[in-house]
Structure formats: C-alpha cells, structure tokens
From TrEMBL:
The lineage of its organism: Bacteria, Pseudomonadati, Pseudomonadota, Gammaproteobacteria, Oceanospirillales. It comes from Billgrantia kenyensis. Coiled coil: none annotated. The chain holds residues 587 to 876 of 876 of the full protein. It comes from the Bacteria. Residues 24-278 form the EAL domain. This is cyclic-guanylate-specific phosphodiesterase.
Length: 290
C-alpha cells in the first residue's frame, strides 16, 4: 500500500511538473505570436521634478496585449522572455517604440521629454548592443540626450570591466544611464563612484515604509546623501502617499515617481495628461512667437 501511495504521489508530482512545463510552453508560443504581431503596448509613467512638480520625463513600461487575457504586466512574461531569448526582439520593439513616441510628442508640440527604458541584462551584454542602439536612434530620429537606460545593479556586477566600458561609450554617445531598483542588489555605494552614471532610482521596497520605519527612513536618507556627494541625482519610485513624498522632499530627493502623481498610461492618456494646465505650465512661460 505504501508503495502504491508512493507511486501515486510520484504521479501527482510528475503531472504537476508536466502541467507547469506545458503552461510555460503555451506561454512561450503565445509570446512568439505576440512578437510577430507586435502585440505590445508601452505605458508611460511620469517622472516629477521634486522642486516644482513639473514633468521631467517618463518611464516606458511594456504591456502585452494578450488576445484572451487582456493586458499582461511585464512581471508575467519578461522573466520567461529572458530565459527563452525572446527578450531580444521585445527589447528592440520597446526601444524603437519609446523613441518614436517621444519624437511624436515633440512633433505634436508637447515639448521634449526624456524617456527611460528598462534594459535586460541579456541586451546590455550583447556584443552589438551599442550598434543596435545607435541604429534605433538614427532610424527614429530621437536625439540621444532624450534617452535614458535603466540598468539593475546585477547587470553591472556581473562583468564589471566590460560593463564599465559600455557605460563610458553610452556617456560618450550622450545617453543617460540610471541604476534601477537601487538597494536591492549587492552593490555598495562605493562602486558607484567608478561608474559613469547619472542617477539612481531607490527601490519601491524602501519607499513603502519610509515614513513609519525608522530603519527604512535612515537607509533612504543615507542613500540620498551619499548619492549627492557622488554627484548623482536620486529618483524615488513607488510613492503612493503624501507622507512618503514629504519625507523624500525633506531629504533632498530630486525626482518623484509613483501612483501618488500618476500611474503608467498609454500614449493617448499621456497626451491628455500633458494637456492639463499643471503639466504645460512650464511651457507657457516661454516667450510667445508673434
Ligand atoms: P521597474 O523598472 O522598477 O518599474 C517600476 C514598476 O513599479 C512598474 O511596474 C510600475 O508600474 C510600478 N509602480 C510605479 N509606481 C508605483 C506605485 O506608486 N506603487 C506601486 N505598487 N507600483 C508602482 P510594472 O510596469 O509592472 O513593471 C515591472 C517591472 O518589469 C519593471 O520594474 C521592470 O523591471 C520590468 N519592465 C517593465 N518594462 C520593461 C521593458 O520594456 N523591458 C524590460 N527588460 N523590463 C521591463
Ligand atoms: Mg525601471
Ligand atoms: Mg524601478
Ligand atoms: Mg522596482
């Protein structure tokens, strides 16, 4: 009996694994179709200047427009795409779409905004990464100063010498680089001083309890102060409450990002958002052509 029970348990186990493998294969096939049909959409989340509440740029966040399941968030397919290599074509699409959308906004008279694009480790390590990037900028007509790449600490730690070299080339090109999810990796601030980067983005997990946890408050305060001493700007992500914003403002955080200000939104919603008086206030102070 024990033997039989054991076998049943084993069967259950292998069935579970089979289900999981099947689900992943189905997802992978669906994703392949999505790549071919370009069934993705970029949503843009505004980045807010802490000094005057003006919009300084947007983070581009990819969504999969699934025919049955609706919008799927990147957490549900980016990790798989990184395993299967499908991240390559997805990233190419994201980069070009973000560049095109920024050019469109400028052409429509909304003004120039810098767009932040998340970079996967695989992309950054590809030998032709910089050539592809140049080509995307040329093809879309976006000037490099309006592009920012968000890298995670892991990308930079993996192969430091090559990574530092790539970062210098990006700086020479005029593309801004920021460290995303700062504080969640293994890095120390001391390694930052060797890297030609412009800013760090404090991870949401530290911002969450900033106003209530003495520890998180102290960590964030320390990060901001050290970053500033190294000449880096600081962005805080995941700001949902006024208390969090007030704490960050009081400690000199440069840029705010979070649901308190705006959620990620598709381009048409973003255009409507930019038409609202607050966002265009900075533009209306420019001299008027007669
Ligand atoms: P991330 O780069 O750290 O992006 C910020 C995430 O926090 C976004 O989730 C955004 O919607 C969310 N967020 C922003 N403000 C708030 C807030 O106030 N509260 C809460 N609870 N969440 C907030 P999203 O869009 O689901 O993206 C998740 C992650 O997927 C991103 O984290 C990024 O690592 C990755 N990702 C997104 N788009 C791309 C892409 O085009 N390429 C690659 N390689 N990764 C991407
Ligand atoms: Mg990011
Ligand atoms: Mg982030
Ligand atoms: Mg994050």
């Amino acid at each position: 009996r024990a033997k039989q029970k054991g076998r049943n348990a084993w069967e259950c186990f292998t069935n579970d694994i089979n289900d999981e493998v099947r689900a992943r294969m189905a997802l992978r096939n669906d994703l392949q179709e999505a790549i071919e049909a370009e069934n993705f959409e970029l949503h843009y989340q505004p980045l807010i200047d802490a000094r005057n509440d003006s919009v300084v740029g947007f983070e581009a966040l990819v969504r999969w427009k699934h025919p049955v399941k609706g919008y799927l968030s990147p957490g549900l397919f980016i990790p798989l795409a990184e395993d299967t290599g499908q991240i390559g074509p997805i990233s190419e699409w994201v980069l070009r779409q973000a560049c095109r959308d920024m050019c469109l906004l400028a052409a429509q008279g909304f003004g120039h905004y810098r767009v932040s694009v998340n970079l996967s480790p695989l992309q950054f390590r590809r030998p032709n990464f910089l050539v592809n990037l140049q080509q995307a900028l040329l093809e879309t007509g976006l000037s490099p100063e309006w592009l920012e790449l968000e890298l995670t600490e892991g990308i930079l730690m993996a192969d430091t010498a090559a990574a530092v070299d790539t970062l210098h080339r990006l700086r020479d090109m005029g593309v801004e680089v920021s460290i995303d999810d700062f504080g969640t990796g293994f890095s120390s601030l001391s390694y930052l001083k060797q890297l030609p980067i412009g800013k760090i983005k404090i991870d949401r997990s530290f911002v969450r309890d900033i106003a209530t946890s003495r520890h998180d408050g102290a960590i964030v305060q320390g990060i901001i102060s050290m970053a500033h001493h190294l000449g880096l700007a600081v962005v805080a992500e995941g700001i949902e409450e006024t208390e969090q914003r007030d704490f960050l403002a009081a400690h000199g955080c440069d840029v705010f990002q979070g649901f308190l200000f705006a959620r990620p939104m598709p381009l048409d919603k973003l255009q409507a958002y930019l038409r609202k008086p607050k966002a265009v206030a900075q533009v209306s102070s420019l001299p008027i052509d007669r």
